[in-house]
Design goal:
67 strands; beta-fructofuranosidase activity; 3 helices; EC 3.2.1.26; eight-stranded antiparallel β-sheet; Tachylectin-2, Chain A; hydrolase; Jelly Rolls; 4 domains; mainly beta; ConA-like_dom_sf; LamG-like
Length: about 950
């Protein structure tokens, strides 16, 4: 610590409390005369040492004040010795004395001191073996009114045998506030608003980076400040770091750190833990260049394992807590990290108690890293998709302190006890950091009534289950940011399928569990006692395959929200390489995911998505592997339910994900009819087909014989819009087979970053069996509960297209439900334009091509602002009219558009208009007619 601990000194940034030398009674305090006027030298160490050089020739830069400064090396290198003494001065003003000091380190032979006129040393400091100045500040208030001197001593002759001095300030610097003695820096995050936060020692304002400081798709908004609560004591009004876009930084030159001893302290409440890309922790506070073995880092790694590292230039020393001291998601913890080379140790303390210690050499010294000091973000982060810097903290941070000395265990315990006294009842407060949907208010593309994750990333909703009259929905979620990584199970609950309430994450990757690396998609069912059970894809990268089926049960089955879940300690199904998938074939080993589970009679059935290859390794197609069980934990393999043909149908993929197998009625012979829905995956390529399609087959199912007989092996598209993927489903208490899906947003990674969210669910749909045996689909009836007020338009009698358009002219909106029946008449192509600009520059066209017998969407004018697709194109598929009529249910929800036609087919698509006025509706189709049309404004899913 530069020998300052023994004399109660502390460091402050170079820019803190700028002084006017005229306020000081010290003569020539910054050597701006260009010589030693006002100073008395002895020996030769300082002859000719006043210089205006900005750098030292083999490096840069002194960062001195003014034009001149005292560079000890300039007077003959390291060999010369001597002293330099100032004229006496009277200590006035604040009683603080500070100076810029650099050069060699030798506490006994090489130093700058504040002394009495008799030569008694009151405070002293040495260099850090660095020519760049750092400011040393001494609290000399007990000597106010006395006459003192500054004395520079150089009796060192070896390497780094020189010392440098500049800008001595007397009575100008602000004294430390009570409780801030010995602090180099302190961020208390007390602002509660704004895009900067004050560092209390320097009184400098440090910027807070946050994605919506300068928002792209919504109005600007402040970083996520916690509301102030007096009962939370020192943790009142903390800053919430969102996990991908929030960090605090200050320039390297503003941060002066002790080198031979320091202490870091911070209160943190992690919301979740990162995967730990490249082995790097999520930084809490750091100023590091680990590759150069310089700087320091306090951070939290996978599963809450936190660590502290210090670089000395020639080595990087690190200490980490044991598992028993790992952080818990959602709870405040007080962390203290001590670097005490004088005692040969680095130590970690959790809530005031020591939990780890690692030996370091007594000669170890912190080597400064010439990079910004950053809170909440790693100095050298890994990148995801070339856009997202990871190794970032996700959660609350408060009371970050950097001490200029290594605190003793008693001091650490006392500091923690002092903080506890500020809390109501002396108890650490609750960490309040639920994801707030309002941060996206005003986003022109974020859906309002389709289910979205409260923040950040979601992909497929899955494992829907109805318990106690409530629908529970889970979904793939990354709470760290809008990108695929760190996947856990988000959770929401609804009483009507369309209004949803957010609940805490249900399952997350956990150390020493069956899923340490990811909790991927799965299913739900009720056990023999009617208690809900979740089956999930357990990610464990230490195994091959890294995918298997895990099981979880509610901790409290009587909780109507089923908030807390506990994983079963062992896997329930694992893929075997020798599974029998047919003669001359083998299972695609390593692809084994997304269980779908249901019960018939006393047997549970499980489908697992996988693929089949020839024994020589050629892909045959995707498959759904069938297992059975009597107790949900012991499963027997039955064989493939069905195997695809990727050669004949390339878009069906080499692997099937999310197999969903739902009843749709019985045929004339009383046989159970089911629909098998799959999400094609393409681990062998081509990527152009990924995340675009859901295929289905309809057939008969014999549970007793474990036999599925599709009507045809020809796959059929469920949705023609190329955005409906990731099916999951359940049978509810009304006997309905319901399907949930993910509506792919197909935006660029930069757009995901700027927007702060990715993807949304489609509306839940109901499956049925049509008279011709094919699959019928329609939105659930509950969507009408989203209607806001009376219809904006209601046409109940046959009307010409032109007449209907006159009535539509004043209707605008981007959250609408349109129910429309059109008669073809003599029209070849007819339908509805939505999100249309007044001059037709932009619009999304939902059409029926009568000569071709096809239903589709024309997106060539939809607008592709932020879309990955340059040419949005036209998507369509076969559909027969019903008595020459097309009946549509169209749902416009900002960028999300769904259309359901004749209860038979759907299309899900996206539009990202550039124009703010692309809000209109217009019909087209000369020769056609409008039989009926109703338009409603829609409310929000959270209303």
């Amino acid at each position: 610590m530069l020998a300052l601990a023994i004399c109660l000194g502390f460091l402050t940034p170079l820019t803190a409390h700028p002084a006017d030398a005229a306020q000081s009674t010290l003569s020539n305090p910054g050597f701006e005369t260009g010589d030693l006027t006002g100073w008395t030298p002895t020996g030769t160490a300082f002859n000719g040492s006043v210089t205006d050089d900005p750098g030292w020739g083999w490096g840069c830069c002194f960062n001195h004040e003014g034009t001149h400064h005292l560079w000890g090396f300039a007077s003959g290198g390291d060999a010369s010795t001597g002293t330099l003494t100032s004229e006496p001065f009277t200590l006035t003003g604040t009683g603080m004395v500070s100076a810029l000091v650099s050069g060699g380190r030798d506490e006994n032979q090489l130093y700058v001191a504040l002394t009495t006129l008799d030569g008694d040393v009151l405070h002293k400091a040495t260099g850090t073996e660095d020519e760049a100045y750092r400011r040393v500040t001494w609290d000399a208030r007990e000597h106010l009114g006395e006459q003192l001197r500054i004395t520079v001593v150089d009796r060192a002759t070896g390497g780094w045998g020189h010392i440098n001095l500049d800008d001595v300030r007397v009575g100008v610097d602000k004294p430390p506030a009570p409780g801030e003695e010995g602090l180099a820096a302190h961020w208390d995050f007390a602002e509660g608003q704004g895009t900067t936060t004050a560092e209390r020692i320097s009184q400098g304002a440090d910027p807070i980076s946050y994605v919506f400081n300068d928002a792209v798709y919504k109005p600007d908004s402040d970083p996520l400040w916690n509301a102030k609560r007096p009962e939370d004591g020192v943790l009142s009004g903390a800053l919430l770091f969102d996990g991908y876009s929030t960090w605090v930084s200050r320039a390297a030159s503003q941060t002066q750190l002790p080198t031979d001893g320091m202490t870091l302290q911070a209160w943190v409440a992690p919301r979740a833990f990162e995967w730990g890309d490249e082995g790097k922790p999520s930084a809490i506070v750091n100023q590091q260049d680990k590759n150069a073995r310089r700087g320091f880092s306090l951070g939290v790694g996978r599963h809450g394992m936190w660590q502290f590292g210090v670089g000395t230039g020639d080595a990087w020393y690190e200490t980490q807590v044991p598992k028993t001291a790992a952080l818990a998601a959602g709870k405040w913890a007080h962390l203290t990290a001590v670097f005490a080379p004088g005692q040969g140790a680095m130590r970690l303390y959790l809530n005031g108690e020591q939990v780890a210690e690692t030996a370091v050499p007594t000669t170890a010294r912190l080597a400064k890293a010439d990079v910004p000091l950053v809170i909440g973000r790693h100095n050298q982060p890994a990148l995801i998709n070339g856009t997202f810097a990871v190794n970032m903290f996700n959660g609350l941070i408060d009371e970050v302190k950097i001490h200029t000395s290594p605190l003793a265990s008693t001091a650490v315990a006392a500091a923690h006890a002092k903080d506890l006294q500020t809390f109501s009842g002396g108890t650490i407060p609750q960490a309040r950091m639920a994801m707030d949907r309002s941060r996206y208010d005003g986003d022109r593309y974020r859906p309002g009534y389709h289910f979205t994750a409260p923040n950040h990333w979601m992909n497929e909703p899955h494992a829907p289950i109805q318990v106690g009259g409530k629908y529970h929905l889970f979904y793939q979620h990354n709470s760290h940011g809008p990108y695929w990584h760190n996947i856990a199970w988000g959770h929401a609950v609804s009483e009507d399928l369309v209004h949803w309430r957010d609940l805490p994450v249900a399952l997350a990757p956990t150390a020493d569990s069956v899923a340490p690396d990811g909790v991927w998609s799965g299913a739900s069912t009720l056990d023999e006692n009617g208690v809900p059970v979740l089956l999930f894809t357990a990610g464990n990268d230490a195994q091959r395959p890294n995918q298997a089926t895990g099981l979880a049960r509610p901790v409290d089955p009587s909780d109507p929200d089923l908030v807390e879940w506990k994983m079963h300690p062992t896997l329930v199904t694992s893929q075997q390489a020798d599974l029998d998938v047919g003669a001359g074939r083998k299972v695609r080993f390593g692809d084994f995911r997304d269980p779908f589970v249901w019960k018939q009679g006393d047997t549970w059935f499980q489908l697992m998505g996988s693929g089949v290859q020839t024994t020589s390794g050629t892909d045959v197609g995707g498959t759904a592997l069938l297992y059975t069980s009597k107790n949900l934990t012991d499963w027997t393999y039955s064989g493939p339910l069905m195997v695809g043909d990727v050669a004949a149908h390339p878009k069906t993929g080499q692997v099937w994900e999310l197999p969903t197998f739902l009843p749709i009625g019985k045929d004339d012979q009383g046989r159970e009819r089911r629909a098998l829905l799959v999400n094609p995956a393409f681990p062998a390529g081509p990527g152009e087909y990924s995340s675009k399609f859901t295929y289905y087959w309809v057939g008969t199912w014999d549970a007793g014989a474990r036999r599925w007989t599709p009507d045809t092996t020809e796959p059929k598209l469920l949705d023609y819009g190329e955005h409906f993927t990731g099916p999951s489903g359940l049978v509810d208490d009304k006997g309905r087979s319901l399907v949930f899906s993910i509506a792919q947003d197909r935006r660029t990674e930069r757009a995901h970053y700027d927007a702060g969210w990715a993807h949304n669910a489609g509306l839940p749909i109901e499956l049925s069996m049509r008279p011709d045996g094919d699959l019928g689909i329609r939105p659930v009836a509950e969507v009408s509960r989203l209607h806001s007020g009376d219809p904006l338009l209601d046409i109940t009698a046959p009307t010409s297209v032109a007449g209907a358009n006159e009535r539509l002219a004043g209707i605008k909106g981007d959250m609408l439900h349109i129910k429309l029946t059109m008669e073809r008449g003599s029209a070849d192509t007819f339908g509805l334009d939505v999100l249309r600009s007044p001059g037709d520059e932009e619009r999304t066209r939902i059409f029926y091509d009568a000569p071709a017998g096809q239903f589709g969407v024309d997106r060539t004018r939809s607008g592709n602002n932020s879309s990955t697709e340059g040419d949005l194109g036209t998507h369509k598929g076969p559909l027969a009219l019903t008595n020459g009529e097309l009946t549509l249910d169209v749902f416009v929800d900002r960028s999300s558009i769904e259309a359901y036609a004749n209860g038979h087919k759907s299309l899900t698509t996206r539009a990202y208009p550039f124009r703010q006025d692309s809000l209109g509706l217009r019909l087209f189709g000369d020769g056609g007619a409008v039989k009926s049309m109703t338009v409603w404004k829609m409310g929000n899913m959270t209303d």
